[in-house]
């Protein structure tokens, strides 16, 4: 698993397999953020799986949080993992039965509405090289494509991919130390804005990779958006950033 030690807690991701049927394993990706007062406070939890629908993942998350409340004031992550391994089939029994991966994956896509797109605005990057490297790693780990774009003082992150992975990216972006403050100490990103989160439409270009790109002028950036079929997205959200 990956973990990120922080002054304000720890965030880490664990991937487990749970045997649902004799010939079927369900692969779960669990993201835990342990606040500084853990275990007196329950952790933040994110659940995703290619084989479950978003609704099923939300059910798993809700049940894990319910179970976590029973373990307040004692370390609980290991117990929560053991609990979901034993109880997953009961948690999702009221949803569609988990079948083979291809069938359930198509159900998940239809429930999620296909590929989603996220546009973020960052106020600044003090430790630019490290920050960029971190964003690239997260995008790669979560199989997200798109661009990290710089033009003048404007910094934008455009992401495309599975909606649950985009949600997981946002958790990482908001809870992990990705930059440094004015005194040079590591800090979390506190000045980030979600400009848009929407389903990818047929007229939108599907990016195949994640790239970092710097533009000399706003016109160059606008042409990038136009080429990707995102003219409306640009005109609605980017010009206001100049004010």
From TrEMBL:
Alphabetically ordered keywords of this record: Cytoplasm, Nucleus
GO cellular-component term (any): cytoplasm
SUPFAM superfamilies to which the protein is assigned, alphabetical: UBC-like
InterPro entries: RWD_dom, RWDD3, UBQ-conjugating_enzyme/RWD
Subcellular location per the Swiss-Prot or TrEMBL entry: Cytoplasm; Nucleus
Domain called RWD: residue spans: 1-91
Biological process (GO), any one: positive regulation of protein sumoylation
UniProt-recorded name of the protein: RWD domain-containing protein 3
Species, as recorded: Pterocles burchelli
Taxon lineage: Eukaryota, Metazoa, Chordata, Craniata, Vertebrata
Protein's gene: Rwdd3
């Amino acid at each position: 698993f990956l973990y990120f030690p922080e002054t304000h807690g720890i965030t880490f991701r664990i991937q487990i397999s749970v045997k649902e049927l004799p010939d079927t394993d369900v692969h779960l990706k669990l993201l835990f953020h342990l606040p500084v007062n853990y275990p007196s406070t329950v952790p933040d939890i994110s659940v995703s799986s290619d084989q479950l629908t978003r609704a099923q993942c939300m059910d798993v998350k809700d049940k894990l949080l319910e179970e976590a409340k029973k373990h307040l004031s004692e370390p609980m992550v290991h117990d929560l993992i053991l609990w979901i391994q034993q109880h997953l089939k009961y948690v999702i029994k009221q949803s569609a039965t988990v079948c083979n991966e291809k069938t359930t994956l198509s159900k998940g896509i239809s429930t999620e509405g296909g590929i989603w797109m996220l546009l973020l605005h960052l106020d600044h990057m003090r430790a630019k090289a490290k920050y960029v490297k971190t964003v690239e790693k997260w995008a790669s780990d979560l199989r997200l494509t798109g661009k990290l774009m710089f033009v003048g003082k404007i910094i934008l992150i455009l992401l495309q991919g599975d909606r649950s992975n985009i949600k997981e990216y946002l958790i990482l972006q908001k809870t992990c130390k990705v930059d440094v403050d004015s005194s040079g100490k590591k800090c979390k990103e506190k000045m980030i804005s979600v400009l848009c989160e929407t389903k990818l439409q047929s007229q939108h270009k599907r990016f195949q990779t994640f790239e970092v790109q710097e533009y000399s002028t706003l016109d160059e950036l606008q042409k990038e958006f136009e080429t990707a079929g995102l003219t409306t997205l640009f005109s609605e959200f980017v010009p206001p950033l100049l004010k």
